[in-house]
Amino acid sequence: MARDRTHSFGYPPKPTSFEMDMDNITVSSSSDDDDAINPHSRNAFQSFPRGGSTQRPLISFVTNKWETSRSSRGRSSSSDSSASYDWHRVPWLGFIASIVMAPKFRRYLVVYAILLVFAYTGWEAVLQPMIKEHEEILTALNVDTLEKVGGWFGTNVRPEFVDVVPMKTLDPTLLPSPERIQSLKSSRRLVIVGDVHGCQDELEKLLKKVTFDPSSDHLILTGDMINKGPKSSGVVDLARELGASCVRGNHEDRILLERSDMKLHTNEASDQEYTVVSDTAERRVAKSLSDDQAAWLQDCPVILKVGVIKDMGEVTVVHGGLVPGVPLERQELSSVMSMRTIDLDTHVPSASKDGIPWFKLYNQYHKLLASSHEDVDSSHPPKTMTVIYGHDAAKSLNIRQYTKGLDSGCVYGRKLSALVIEDGGKNEVVQVKCDEYVKS
Ligand SMILES: [Mn+2]
């Protein structure tokens, strides 16, 4: 009996025709072809249980041909087997299953996964380090951390410098006027040029490009006017001719020290070999300068106080940089000529290229100063100071709110830059292309 039933399950169409056509059993279903394929088929007809209580309703043999997905097949089989789970009994599970099965969904899943990877690496590589650096700078400027590190840079008295002019103030009549009269040419301009390094031709080209007029414009050089490039003394002559102002860069400092060293040694008759042995490139530059040229360079201060310019506040020109929060009188002069980075704990500046650039701390300090001032008194402008500097060819032209870096690597075949400040504080950067004199 059990065997018979499995037969009847095995050949569902035959019982169907059997039921439908009970009195005429010799119709198509019992053709010879069927017999050839299934020798038991006739037997199955004869043994099919009729009218018994265990007989399956015929509707259960009907399949929906349009429903060919795996889930529909799962449904028809699950009615027989209670072991397999019916997804459709739990509506939300079935819903999720149908989404996951859809090929479009899988395609989107890949796209979302890629986007997720991009977002994560962006956060890890760019955003998080930026936020971390910003937080570290804020901590470095927080007065509460001052005691922990035992004092910041500038709290001790600096050693006295001899043979160096620490500071000068620019003649105020050279400054552009605070208000610009519309439709008129600027009455006065300041043309501040980054590291020239003996590139006289390029300096001349730049002055021509800004239509420099010595009767109304004033040239300021941010130091490192000489050395490395081809025409050191030519640059000094041009600057003197134009009545330019200057600051002392690390290269002026070195060449002038070399000169005084040479003089010292040539005065000693016993030590004449010294100049012969160390006839380096820097020594040749030092020798090429006349006493007048050297005296002009010697007169360049380390810090040049320019004065107040509209929208820029107090403006100062140095070669390297300034430590924020330290008065100009207490700045350490060799650092002012050479700094690139700053220690966040102690605020001690360094010429090293590795670390937090000093201008980041400087800008943040002055932003905090300006915003805290706004809360207290909005009628007076805050005591912020804008620094215009050179020295950092690696960072190239670097214009920020309170710091303006103008060394764009002219001597390395890049550009010579000028910051031109006009009446009303309007300013723009003008550049010329340079020949390559030194491989960077
Ligand atoms: Mn320099």
From TrEMBL:
Membrane-spanning ranges: 105-123
GO BP annotations, alphabetical order: polyphosphate catabolic process
Limits of the Calcineurin-like phosphoesterase domain: 189-377
Residues covered by region (Disordered): 1-56
Record's compositionally biased regions (Polar residues): 40-56
Pfam families, alphabetized: Metallophos
GO cellular component, one term: cytoplasm
Gene Ontology MF annotations: endopolyphosphatase activity; phosphatase activity
InterPro entries per UniProt: Ap4A_hydrolase, Calcineurin-like_PHP, Metallo-depent_PP-like
Keywords: Membrane, Transmembrane, Transmembrane helix
PANTHER family, per database record: METALLOPHOSPHOESTERASE, ZINC-DEPENDENT ENDOPOLYPHOSPHATASE
Protein name as annotated: Calcineurin-like phosphoesterase domain-containing protein
